[in-house]
Amino acid sequence: MAGSDDEGTAESGRVVQGIQDFLRGRSHDTVLSALALLALAWADLAVWRVTGLAQLQLAGIVLGALLFICGGLGLVLMINLHTGRREPGDTLTAGIILALGGVVAASIGIWLALAWAVAAATGIGGVGVILLLRGMGLLPQSQLSLGISMALGGGAILSLAVLQPEAVWMLLPLLLLGLGMAGLHHRRYQLAGFVLGCYLAGLGSVGWLVSPEVAAGGLLGGGLTMSGSGMLFLLRRSDREARRVMLTEVESALAGSHPSAALEAANRVMRRAQQDGMLLEDDRLWASKARALLGHRQYDRAITYFSMALEIAPQDEQLWFEKGTLYQRLGQWPGAARCFAQATELEYTFPEAWLALGLARERLAELPEAEEALLTGLELGCEPAAAYLGLGRVLAGMGKVRDALKALEQAIALEPENPDPYMARGDIYLSLKDFERACEKGYSRAVQHQPDLKEGWWKLAEVYRLQQSPELVLMVLTRILEADPNDVRALWERADQHYQSKQMADAMGDLHKLLALDPGHQKARQFKALILEKLDGEGWS
Hints:
This protein has 541 residues and is mainly alpha-helical. Among the domains are: 18-236, no CATH class; 239-315, Serine Threonine Protein Phosphatase 5, Tetratricopeptide repeat, CATH 1.25.40; 486-541, no CATH class. Helix content is 79%, strand content 0%. It contains 26 helices and no strands. It has helices spanning 2-23, 27-51, 54-81, 92-111, 115-135, 144-163, 173-186, 190-206, 212-235, 240-255, 259-276, 283-295, 299-312, 317-330, 333-346, 351-363, 367-380, 384-397, 401-414, 419-431, 435-449, 454-466, 470-483, 488-500, 504-517, 522-534. The longest helix is centred in the first third of the chain and has 28 residues, at 54-81. It starts with a helix and ends in a 7-residue tail after the last helix. Pfam families: TPR_16 (PF13432).
C-alpha cells in the first residue's frame, strides 16, 4: 500500500513538473489566451441575451470550464516566475479547504438549482484562492489584505448580479477601471489577481447551468481582477522569463570564459529591467552583474552588487556564500566568515558553507569554532579531503597532535597526490623538532608529488639547516633555481652557502646573477666586496 502511494505521488510530481516545463517561456501566450477566452465568454453571453440559443449556453459553460483551468495554469506560471525564496504562510490548509470547498458547494448549488448558493460559494472560494497563494509563498503577507479585498469584491459583484439582475449592466464600466486598478496594486504579483479572476469567472460561468445571472456576475467579478492583472502583466512587460533568457546569456558567457560579453549582457538585462520598473525587485539582476564584474576582476564593485542583491533577497543563502567566496579571494577573512555564517544560519544543511566557514575561522585563529564548523561540514557531506586537511591544521594549532595527524591521514587517503596534507604533516613534525619525520613524511613527499612546489623546497632547506646538513641545503637551493633561475632569495642563500663551504667562485657567480636581476641589492654588493677582499682581488671585478 505504501509503495502504491509513493508511486502515485511520484507520478503526480512528474505530471506537475511536465506542466511547469511546458509553460516555461509561454507565460505571455498563456495570459493572452485566457483574456481571449474571457472576451469570447462575454461575447457569447451578449449574443445569447439576444438570441437565446441553447448552443450558446453550452458554449458559455465550456468557456467557463476553460477559464477555470486557466486559473490552475496561472498558478503554475506564478511558480515558474517566482525568483526569490518562497516563504510559505500558515494559510495553505485554509486556502485549499475554501478553494475546493467553493467548487464543491457551487456544484451542489447547481444540482439544487440555487443561484444564490452558487454565487456565494464562488465568492468564498475566491477568498480561498488568495489564502492558497499566500500559503504557497507566492503572495507576500503585505499583499494578503489587498488580495482578500479583491476576492470579496469580485464575489460581491457576483452575488449582486444574482440578487439584483437589473444592476449588472450598470457595473460594466468597472471592468475598464479594473484594467488599471487591480494590476497596479499588485505590481510584481500581477498573476495573483489573474488566478483569482480565472477562478471566479470560470466557476461563475459554469453556474450558467442554473442562471445566466450567475455567469454574468462571474464574468464581471472575475473579469475585473483577471483583466486588470493580466493586461498589466502584458503591458508592463514584466514577464520574468524574458529576463531569464538574458540572464542565461550572462551565465553562458561566464562559463565560456568571456567576461566582456558577460558584462555587456548583464548591463543589457539591467537596462531592460529598469525600463520595466523591476530593477530593485529582482535580485538575479544584481547577482549576475556581480558575477560579470568578478570575471573582470573588479572585486570592489562586485561586492557592491552582491550587497544590492542581498538587500532584495536577504534570505538567499547562495548569494551570501558567493559574497563570502569573494571576500575569501580578497583575503578579507572577517567579511568572509560573516557571510558564510549567515549562509549556514539560513540553510543549516549547506555543507560547502560550513567548510568555507571553518577555513575562514582558521585564518582568524578562532580554532574551536573552526573545528566545530569543519566537523559539521563533514557530517553534512562537504568535500571530505579539504575538510580533513583544514581539520588537521586546526587540531594541530589547538595542540591535539595525535588527532591532527589522524585527520591528515584521512586527507592523504582521499587525495594521495595532493601535496598540502604532506606539508601540514611536515609542519607538525617540525614543530615537534622531529626533523627526520618532517622531511620523510612531510616535505619530501610534498615535492615528490609536486616538484615545482617552492614552498616545500624551502621547508626542506629549513629542516636540513636545522640538521646541519649543508650539502643537502645546497642541493635544495640548486633545485629551486633549476625551477626558477631568477629567484633572488635562492641566489642569495646559495651564495651564502657557497661562501660557508669556501666555494668562493661559485658564491661570486650567484652574486653576479643576483646583481644583474637587482642592481640595487646593497647586501649583495657588500657580500661581493667581502669575497673580493678574501680573494685579495684576484681577477674579480
